[in-house]
Amino acid sequence: MLQIHPVNSSIETWNPSIEGTILSLFDPSPQAENWEKNVDQQILKIAYQFLRQIEASSDIELPDLMAQFQEFHLPDDASSFDTYLESLTKTLIPHSIHTSSPRFIGHMTSALPHFMRPLAKLMTALNQNLVKTETAKAFTPYERQALGILHRSLYQFPDEFYDYHLQNSHSTLGMVVSGGTSANFTAIWCARNSSLGPKGDFKGIEKEGLAAALEFYGYQGQVIIGSSLMHYSFEKAADLLGIGSQGLIKIPASRHNRIDLDCLRETVAECRAQKQHIIAIVGIAGTTDSGGIDPIEEMAAIAQAAGVHFHVDAAWGGPLIFSQQHRHKLAGIEQADSVTIDAHKQLYAPMGIGMVMFQNPQLAKAIEKHACYTVREGSADLGQRSLEGSRPAMSLFLHAGLHAIGLKGYEFLIDEGIRKTQYMAEQVRLSPEFELLAEPEINLLIYRYIPEQLREFVAKGELTETQNQAIDLVNEQLQKAQRHAGKTFIARTITQTTRYGPMAIVALRAALANPLTTEADIDAVLDDQIALATQLNLGGSQF
Amino acid sequence: MLQIHPVNSSIETWNPSIEGTILSLFDPSPQAENWEKNVDQQILKIAYQFLRQIEASSDIELPDLMAQFQEFHLPDDASSFDTYLESLTKTLIPHSIHTSSPRFIGHMTSALPHFMRPLAKLMTALNQNLVKTETAKAFTPYERQALGILHRSLYQFPDEFYDYHLQNSHSTLGMVVSGGTSANFTAIWCARNSSLGPKGDFKGIEKEGLAAALEFYGYQGQVIIGSSLMHYSFEKAADLLGIGSQGLIKIPASRHNRIDLDCLRETVAECRAQKQHIIAIVGIAGTTDSGGIDPIEEMAAIAQAAGVHFHVDAAWGGPLIFSQQHRHKLAGIEQADSVTIDAHKQLYAPMGIGMVMFQNPQLAKAIEKHACYTVREGSADLGQRSLEGSRPAMSLFLHAGLHAIGLKGYEFLIDEGIRKTQYMAEQVRLSPEFELLAEPEINLLIYRYIPEQLREFVAKGELTETQNQAIDLVNEQLQKAQRHAGKTFIARTITQTTRYGPMAIVALRAALANPLTTEADIDAVLDDQIALATQLNLGGSQF
């Protein structure tokens, strides 16, 4: 349990009336500054106690936690913040997940650079609203700069291109959004609107809607095509945009977790023959479950030949562009019409920032909107072309990362993550307790635990479906037990691209992005799994 | 210009190699804690210097600012954060908008309670991902609690309702989203999907898409109905969801900026006669341009009679529920199927948090999605039913506000904002230089400056269209001049609901939510406008 020392200057003591209390909460007085300085020190202490935890989480059960948050009455009278903070240190913080722990290697989180924390406070102190220049003056060109730097790293256009577009308010090199899901929505939205735009008497899908657009253009329906490993945000996009999730065509992925190109070509031809409008072809640079990378160059060529928008979801894998050793894996990404990259993943920004980048700076005009009270036509307001309206200055984290981590820093982080994943793969390969389910492409790894009685069958590659199902159950139990114990953490997924063919198999998934994770931490995670499996006698009786 | 004192312990001095540099950036070592403590103190100083600025902004021109952000090369080698922070204090911070200034009363921003800033740092230190319990254990019931408290304040269901639903993972009382735009999207998405759901052989719009849904249900098209003053996010929603912005039917608003109920009834009847599917009727509780509130109770009755989803956009006005004096203005809001409220507006949270609330805890099932690697069916994962995927623990600000401001605190804030708006309206009414364009309903005010030569015509209500257009130009110039000078700030909009009939009129708009704004500040803003208009000789020659 974290300890917290109460400070002496509590807010209520400044003034007893509600007016005084509230005004003193907002007034940037010297007393307030002094109060905040004390609270800053408390938060710093709490933060570092939290950040130093090696365990993945506490071992409290979720229902027990829920029982502590049952009150639903709004208090008439406020607590002092000191009292409130104390309650957070009792109920909330000790049972938060140690996403920065070197042994929490299951999800796409990591420790963050120290400077991100003070910047979060600065962002909130400035409290800009990026929707328009009237509420975010300098932040508008500043955010555009960060996006321009990222655009150039990705697309490598000549300098004149950036001289012209970087600060040109008619151009959109990219957008800062709340995360990869919104980035994917935005890309597909732009693709849909630009491919079903105004023509002759037809005012475009934006004005007349999807059904009218299909009728005008003579299409029988509309689809998005990608591999079966597309992120679930594309299900959401297909639903949200009126396409329907049946319109999300999932091409089988090969054992390397890459899309089957022949099948993609056939599907494109079939859709065209059946007058199904292809809104976009989606390539993946780092599948969520195993880090597979689609053959981007070939997909770009197929999309180009078909005149279809090509989007690459590089939410996870995008920062490979910073690695001399690994950027070849993304070859062809510069041919994508749009690219999703998350800053809160491998650019090491705090949760809540993703980007969508556009090859053509005019593409986002397809979703442009105006309002007389805020984003005006012809202005430099970033909110003219964006999914979200009012939004915070999260670009502070992106811009700061690009400058205070730099190319070489990001290269090191990417290279190290992949190197450590190779190490973990090797450990898994060498341990009879585990089976490697796919050769890792980047820094995501899928494997599973094998109960002792079945190891010889695995070695021979002779597992029956029933045996596989039993192993599934064991791995599900193991992952839950490990999560509950809280000492280490690995995620769980289902894979259909193993040597066992299209059979759905429960897999353990590691994500190795935290630079603080050492080989010893990886060993500890695997050892923890072996110990838990033994202790629970997992698979000990059913065979 | 803000001054910044360099700290001695710079990150690079810890280790010269790239490995050492990067690891030391992430390692929560005692040196790091000490470094961060120093940076915290610098940020606090920067923050308070910024927060104490009375002026609305610097007077730099946007093109001059853009010229400072022209670089588009990613640096090979990182700057130290100290150097980077110094650059921010030169180019970025001095030219950020003083959104917390008591004289920046044009947009929907305010000073924030002090405790929001340390909390921002805490949020980033914990860096939870609310998409699932595996990355946000205690935060899951904690966020649900904050939403439950808000739900009860709004809908006032009996205790048993909350005992059952508050922590029930099958129920969705509300969602935390990035802002009002996403909240409105989510509400319309739920309304669309639940009204065009699975039936017989039809698998529902979610699976089969919008065109198939219209065909199956025998509709000719689809519409959303609200007043002409709906926020522009509904234009986006209509486009995004495949409805098309032509499907957004805008009923004229009366002089009180309320929807014309007769016209609404006729439109509903007409749509039904023409087999146009009405996805939702939208009521507004606080229009963005003038704070008008629709007759919510009557609209709810119309929607209910027609069996149509009723959504209330209370992004701005929602917190009136906390005021005994003013909550009657929202009478009927508890009959809304869904309600949008922004926490970053009148709940005084930092930018980036809005909520959508649902009367029926099962409604959001209409947009439910799962993924084997993350949000699993039957889990408590909040990401099962949400627009966004990975997202930060912004609910920290909502929960803290509810507890450390409390009911009485929010009531005071709402009451004071409205009281000061009445004061400002009275000053405008008494000044021959200005014309009040609408009696304020809440704490938004629209008015305009009248050049001297035209004041007698205004007094008689005898302005010609040409004279009105000349006044429009004057007010546009005045608002731009005021914004540029930066001493005070008022926003600008276009209104069509004045005594001049449906003519579009340029208006100045004040938003009075900042508790630090005094009557003297209001006087200063109006005096600044009069002085600027005189100085610029606005309207001095054209009449």
Automatic annotation (TrEMBL), chains A, B:
This protein's GO CC annotations: cytoplasm
Cofactors, names only: pyridoxal 5'-phosphate
Keyword field: Decarboxylase, Lyase, Pyridoxal phosphate
Residues recorded with modification N6-(pyridoxal phosphate)lysine: K345
A GO MF label: aromatic-L-amino-acid decarboxylase activity
InterPro entries linked: Asp_decarboxylase_pyridox, PyrdxlP-dep_de-COase, PyrdxlP-dep_Trfase, PyrdxlP-dep_Trfase_major, PyrdxlP-dep_Trfase_small
Coiled-coil stretches: none
Top-level lineage group: Bacteria
GO biological process, alphabetically ordered: carboxylic acid metabolic process
SUPFAM superfamilies: PLP-dependent transferases
Family indicated by similarity: Belongs to the group II decarboxylase family.
Name of the featured protein: Putative pyridoxal-dependent aspartate 1-decarboxylase
Organism listed in the record: Oscillatoria acuminata PCC 6304
